[in-house]
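User: Assemble these into one structure.

Assistant: Restating your components, then the assembled model:
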Amino acid sequence: MTLTLTALTSPPARVDLSPLVPETTRGRSAIEVAGTAIRCGRDRVGVGELFAVSGYGTDELVLRGELGRIDRIGAGMRGGRLRVEGSCGDHVGARMTGGEIVIDGDAGAFAGAELRGGLVRIEGSAGASAGAGYPGTRAGMSGGEIVIAGDAGQEAGAAMRRGLVAIGGRAGDGAGLRMLAGTVIALRGVGAEAGMGNKRGSIVSGRPLRPLPGYARAVRYRPPALALQLRRLRELGLEVPDAMLTGAWTRWAGDRLELSRGEILIFDEEEVAAG
Amino acid sequence: MTEIRITGGAIHDPANEVDGEVRDLCLRDGRIVDDVGAQARTIDARGMVVMPGGVDIHAHIAGPKVTAARRLLSDDRRDDPIDRTELLRSGTGGLVPSTFATGYRYSLLGYTTVVEAAAPPLAARHVLAELRDTPMIDKAFLILMGNNQVLFELIRDGSAHLRDAIAWWLQATGGYGVKLVNPGGVELFKQSNGVIESLDDTIAGFAVTPRQVIEAIGSAVDGLGLPHPVHVHANNLGVAGNAATTLDTMRTLDGRQAHFAHLQFHSYGGEPGGPMRSRAPELLEHLAAHPEFTVDVGQVMFGDAVTTTADAHVSTVLRDLDGGKWLNHDTEVETGCGIVPYTYQAGNYVHALQWGIGLELFLLGGDPWQVMLSTDHPNGGSFLSYPKLIRLLMDRGYREDQLGRANRRAIRRTALLDDLDREYTLNEIAIITRAAPARRLGLRDKGHLGVGADADVTIYHDREDREEMFSTPRYVIQGGELLVEDGDLRRVQDGLLLSGRAPFDPAVAEVLEPLFGERYTVAFDHYPVRDPALREPARTVEAS
Amino acid sequence: MSEPLICAGCGLLCDDVTAEGTALTPECALGSRWLAARRDAGGAAASIDGAPADVTAALDRAVELLGAARRPLLHGFDGATVEDARAAVTLADRLGALVRVDRAPDPEAVARRGSSTATLGEIRDRAEVVVVWREDPEVTHPRLLERLGSGATLVVVDDRDTATAARADVRLRWAAGRDLEAIRSLHVLERELPLTEDDLAGELRGLLDRLHAVPHAAFVHGPGLGGPRAALALYELVRALSDQRHVVTLGLPPVAGSAGADAVLTWQTGYPAAVDLASGHPELALAVDEGVDVAVCVEAPARPGVTTIALSALPVADAAVHIATAPPGVAAPGTAHRLDEVPLALAAPWPADRPTAAQLLARIGEGLAR
């Protein structure tokens, strides 16, 4: 049976669960895993004090129960599968290099922060700074995919250098802040102040948006590369309306205050209907 | 009463002309003594190398600009955390470690004394408080005086009070010595983003020239007999062709004691804006003819660094090179500050040339008593790279291997390919990392192992790999206490604040007060640091 | 009789002040209020759950609460000294606590791109245009404009009729929500790129012309500038303007002691503003919900909904433990950093037989070690 950790109660303080990833639990018994020390607030406690542990460690690890104060799930993970049955705390999948994390519910802030590879899939919504770099980082996320079925908070994809942050719902304000390259897509639209200081990145908004003054309206077209990316989003399980695949988008070039080789693509349904 | 006998080690004490002699070294009550009793703790140093504790004559470790660099580099320290223990405070490392980490890591490296080379006197309380939180090492700071508007006025007027004013300033701040940074040029930068083109340019609004400032302050410090002579960061740092300025600065100070900081950054031929050349040989020649001068090299090491300087104009040049992070802070009356993270790349022509010029300064036959080791931490690289630099100097094979990785075009413009087979001896390393800096700082009790000296002793395994050897001393003893064993800190201590002092006529206050009133936004009475908690524990080194 | 004083009523730390009673010369309403509250603080030396207690009992209770805390926080530092902050971060390190200093919303912007700043004297002597961006220093830092001198053209960006706006030579009145857009538009104009014409364009061109016409300018900003992205945009603009002239910013801190406390936090841990020491080493504190259970408030009010240990010269409502401190600058000496980072030594013209926060924090640390 897959190694499964079920939270006994909500812990007394925030927990750092990064020591438990498939590669460290593989081949270990429930009793061994229960004895692993993790940090709860300023204390170190055994996993068994906070979780009921069952099964045997394989390439997969399952977490259940009230996980809202469990942080750093799968942080730094290099491979395997990690399933979170519920909502989790901050920094899920931060700096992971490979493997897959699926979260049934919502994720806290910094989900997939500075991701280097692999897939983080969030069936609910994500907090602020999904796929973002940590403060001061020039080049943040450098690969992999983050898929968020719901909404994302502020500054999704900030400082990212490569990879994809795909949001089925809305992205909060400040998406793609100082991004170097890579793609942030929000099918229900990105918030205000998107793409400030963006160098080469693509920000895709499924709803109308008024870009910052650093952006200049460039062209209205049917971008073939975007259609490919949107099809990939469908493969990843997001609902992409047909109109977006076939319709016209407005491309704004910017941020002209940086290299001006980035873009914001905006889907304008009205004009598509008219056309 | 702590007594230690170090037995069987090869002693390298160049100040006392001891070169690898195997004999015992005895320590009592923080001093080196002739002999100790039978009950003394014995440290078996057979097969090991015994040197005085390291002395860093030029680094940037504390004060507002260092803390500003920490703010700017949140990302650089994240992967280098230091956990708290029963004994140690927690901290973070990286290029600009937190204060406790700075003290611990210098001590782990076998250094016992470090000079913060550029403190704005107006921020003395901040510098002192940070140094208090920098444990282990003894430390001193130099105060920035080369762009001080009040001194400009005294110099312009040929005031007889200049010497007294400088001595007053040291007394007011707890500083150890006097630093000039781009004299006159920082004021010009603050006025108009301007630069000095010649030492005879007039500094607008003050009717003085950089040459007058250099000469007047250099002479005043020389005349005061302060333990450390004027410490000069010359004009035009980093600019092609600046060797002419450097030579001109040296000629201006000829006959007076002076120390020139990070000479590598001031040894360039060529024309401003054009390709750089090395003029290290010419500068070394000048040095050889002028025993009153010393330098530290300011070696650049390939990899990450952060330029942290009072020479704020230089920072704007670096800012515009790659558009990365940039921090600037102007301090009224006194100085500026600029910070830009920077990476020296082996394949880059300019960086490889800078690296090569540094090595030329070390290797082209200069007197090690005149040419001291520094990376201008963290400007040319972290102090943690000193062991690698020592290996470059001691191990020709390793050096040639590293030369092979550097930009060929640049290296061809240096003398490094001219069959340069010099390898530093252990005694020469002891000179450039402790004996010479201590002597130049006027620290008579440091940098040597003679009877009566401070019991600051570093003991190394004698390993073939000199980088490994100097990275992890076997023992570090400071003030007679064993602080480090095999890479572990065993004991924590505060370390002393070293202050320099010269007598002055207190009537100088009457000259300074009105000048302060016109310029500073801090009242004259509130300027001097009086709080004993900031100034102790101290050792004051008097002028002679 | 009048006493010379360094006033810690705001981050300006005016050091040319004398006090007669609680009236200050030069006059300053904020400074007088600050002094009055601290000279007449009175009250019990300590209290536990609102009932008077002796200091030792209160310290024991604080040790007990912190010993049992899962997620302690140290914060505040309103008018606290550098010595207080050093003791606070020392205790936080021992506890594995969070430390938070209330600063203007700029540490993130500094970490991303840096900044260009200057001391008051630099701005006074050089700046020919001073732009106050949606702050009202006449109320929050009453002598700021005086200390910056009268030579500069004062531009105030604010749609409210503040006391500062009343002194402006030039007023720009767009709404707060448009600040980021306005700053980016200025930047676009500075780069001589085409700007989509809108209602702000004319005013922005006028402002830029003023800035271009002088060799030195300064922007005064603070919490009014709505968040780290706006601060970042301002710093980027200043950087662009600095290419051809000298331009700096001056941040107005929300509380007087924050500049010094933030410096201490940064030098001891390597990180500014908010640091989490729970892991055994410093990490930037990034969580929104920190789950704090016990808060030590150093010269600050209680934290709502959290068990509070208040070490404060002023009375604190709703604290589990309150110990009255000798107010820094009034009854206790210490170092404070002015808003432009210049360190000054606060005097203690009216010494009182009360401990400093630094002393109390050290005693709590000793208590925890037992």
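Chain B has a mean pLDDT of 96.
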